[in-house]
Amino acid sequence: MIDENCIFCKIGAGEIPTNPVYEDDRVIAFDDLEPLMPVHTLIIPKNHYANIGDNVPEDELGHLFGTVQKVAEIKGIAKDGYRLLINTGENASQSVKHLHIHVLGGGLMPRPNDQDWGSAATNADKFYSDEDK
Question: Annotated active-site positions, please?
Answer without folding.
Answer: 100
